[in-house]
């Protein structure tokens, strides 16, 4: 395809790029002709979208299905206070247009799934993975390998981040590094564990940088390397990666079609479902009723101490999940035990741990302290 030409306005706008020997006029035209798909308009997608738009990438596809929440604003800089409650795609389109009206923005208001991923990704040159869950990461990886599209990967957790470029012609893919997903609930989400607000900005800008380099054909990409970022110590380390010849995606190529990634990641695993079916849950109203009736309930808060300081249920005892096994000798098996966390995930894990240790009367507070606040005690701080 012939490269698009630049208008007079674009020539002036991108003049600092045109002065760079590694970009110049032809490079800027390559950027204008580039088609990049952003999977997610959240913490990682926000800085990536803004800098790709500012750089003059001509077409940005954005896939998301969420609305802006006030808790997003600490890190998702595509969105502002007035956008709370709006579709993230509408907010993203407006922010990108304000940065650069010359960029064509195509939005897909849907979850990326096995049914639509190949059709969506096929129309783009490069994919920027800004997802925050394992099913979407494996789905994006496999689709990129099948279609031969570079996958610019990024992830963040608390104060640490990662970035790489997967699924290039000769480099490794995400499955080469992480062959199997972690057990469900083992890795908490940002909503459970928190994330330093500037960290997605740092990683997202790295993703944008790698994307621009790929479009230009300039420099050395992160393909074959995993960049590890420790924001607390401001340290960067790089691990060398190689393609695994036994990788079912890019090695043996046994993955020829997309699968059920929720099932692959254990989110619909029959074994886990059978365990969860046996797990008794208290609704906030039922727990309030039981406590008001004076029933003997040992209420355990399995969150972290700093979360306890923000808000906790009166009468509860703090037993962080990581110290639960050491604290078991202080828990009475004669009482009914009810555990809670922020949203329910860590509570469910605590129930399994206590059940495995022989505690029979253990229940989880459905929805955690957030649901308790909504339905019982709105004086508690929401976080």
Task: Walk me through this protein's architecture.
β5 (151-157) and β6 (160-166) form a beta hairpin. With 383 residues, this protein is α/β, with parallel strands linked by helices. An 8-stranded mixed sheet has the order 3-2-1-4-5-6-7-8, sandwiched between helices. The protein has a 5-stranded parallel sheet with strand order 9-13-12-10-11. It has 2 domains: 34-269, NAD(P)-binding Rossmann-like Domain (Rossmann fold); 278-375, Rhodanese-like domain (Oxidized Rhodanese, domain 1, 3-Layer(aba) Sandwich). The protein is 37% helix and 17% strand. The model is unreliable at 269-277 (pLDDT under 50).
Short description:
The chain has 383 residues and is of the alpha/beta class. Helices cover 37% and strands 17% of the residues.
SSE diagram, text form:
Blueprint: H1 8-13, H2 15-18, H3 24-33, E1 35-39, H4 45-55, E2 59-64, H5 88-99, E3 104-109, H6 117-122, E4 126-129, H7 134-147, E5 151-157, E6 160-166, H8 174-177, H9 190-193, H10 199-216, E7 225-230, E8 235-240, H11 261-264, H12 270-277, E9 280-282, H13 284-292, E10 297-301, H14 305-310, E11 317-318, H15 324-327, E12 336-340, H16 345-356, E13 362-365, H17 368-375
Parallel strand pairs: 1-2, 1-4, 2-3, 4-5, 9-13, 10-11, 10-12, 12-13
Antiparallel strand pairs: 5-6, 6-7, 7-8
* Biggest pleated sheet: 8 strands, mixed
CATH class of the largest domain: Alpha Beta
- What would the average pLDDT be, to the nearest integer? 94
Helical fraction: 25-40%
Task: Please count the beta strands (DSSP E, at least 2 residues each).
Answer: 13
The CATH architecture of the largest domain comes to 3-Layer(aba) Sandwich
Q: What is the terminal-to-terminal distance?
A: 50 Å
User: Any idea how many domains?
Assistant: 2
- Numbering strands along the chain, what is their spatial order in the largest sheet? 3-2-1-4-5-6-7-8
Extract low-pLDDT stretches: 269-277
Strand portion: 15-25%
Q: Over all CA atoms, what is the radius of gyration?
A: 24 Å
Counted by DSSP, the helix tally is 17
Shape: elongated
Element-level helix/strand string: HHHEHEHEHEHEEHHHEEHHEHEHEHEHEH
- Helix-strand category: alpha/beta
Here the CATH topology of the largest domain equals Rossmann fold
CATH homologous superfamily label of the largest domain:
NAD(P)-binding Rossmann-like Domain
